[in-house]
Specification:
By secondary structure, the protein is of the alpha/beta class. The protein has nine helices and eight strands. The strands form two sheets. The chain has a five-stranded parallel sheet, sandwiched between helices. A three-stranded antiparallel sheet has the order 3-4-5, covered by helices on one side. Helix 2 packs across helix 4 and helix 4 packs parallel to helix 8. The protein is globular and about 50 Å long. The structure holds cytidine-5'-monophosphate (C5P). The site of cytidine-5'-monophosphate has 14 residues, from helix 2, helix 4 and helix 8. Keywords: ATP-binding, Cytoplasm, Kinase, Nucleotide-binding, Transferase. It comes from Nocardiopsis kunsanensis.
Length: 223
């Protein structure tokens, strides 16, 4: 039998990554961070000196780099042309430019194709996969039996993200999250949206363990 797909969308800082990894670990599933793929492609474009505000320039090059994603939730990896870029993709340069790259339709076509290949392989070879991003429930895996939309207040999201990136500038972090959310929600190509059949989970007052327990419960019910 084919493995299960758990699709998780939501804005930055809503707890998607920690929740997805936690659920995957608890149930022996693979884990795919699609945001890391958009970041990796953005890192490569910047490294090549591409002007990422030029959509045609981005579109012309999206197929060039080879992206390799490791889907073990205990040690997820991301490589571009064989180079480990896990640290580089979290830097300010990439964070400031990723929304521009991800708004280009050719970027999305290329990465969605790669994501579906990774999902198909995981379903064939394992118990299944938890996939997180902005368009997983709507575009990448709309047929997934478990579809979640995570939210949290802007303050809670900024506080969490600040801890993750080890900054004390919570206000600056909140401004950055708000800017990216606005870009990601307003773009023409696959904007961040919640579909009627995705379960919305507001994680503001919950700790990570509580959220993981809720999602594991939904996953077990769907199998
Ligand atoms: O999740 P993360 O913050 O790492 O994602 C970085 C960026 O990648 C987002 O701000 C968004 O522009 C883009 N993204 C996307 N679709 C996804 C995942 C991420 O457009 N499925």
């Amino acid at each position: 039998t084919e493995g299960i797909v758990i699709a998780i969308d939501g804005p930055s800082g809503s707890g998607k990554s920690s929740t997805s990894r936690g659920v995957a670990k608890e149930r022996g599933l693979r884990y795919l961070d699609t945001g890391a793929m958009y970041r990796a492609l953005t890192w490569w474009m910047l490294d090549q000196g591409v002007d990422v505000s030029d959509a045609a320039a981005v579109a012309a090059l999206v197929d060039r780099p080879v992206l390799t994603m490791g889907t073990d939730p205990d040690a997820p990896t991301v490589a571009v042309d064989g180079r480990d870029v896990a640290v580089e993709i979290r830097g300010k340069d990439v964070t400031d430019n990723v929304s521009a790259v991800s708004a280009v339709p050719e970027t999305r076509e290329r990465l969605v194709r790669t994501q579906r290949e990774i999902i198909a392989a995981a379903r064939a070879e394992s118990e299944g996969i938890v996939v997180e991003g902005r368009d997983i429930t709507t575009v990448v895996a709309p047929e997934a039996p478990v579809k979640l939309f995570l939210t949290a207040s802007a303050e809670a999201r900024a506080t969490r993200r600040s801890k993750e990136v080890r900054t004390t500038d919570v206000a600056g972090t909140q401004a950055d999250l708000t800017r990216r959310d606005a870009l990601d929600s307003s773009r023409k190509a696959s904007p961040l949206t919640r579909t009627a059949d995705a379960t919305e989970l507001d994680t503001t007052g919950l700790d990570l363990g509580q959220v993981i327990t809720l999602v594991v419960g939904l996953a077990d019910a769907a199998r």
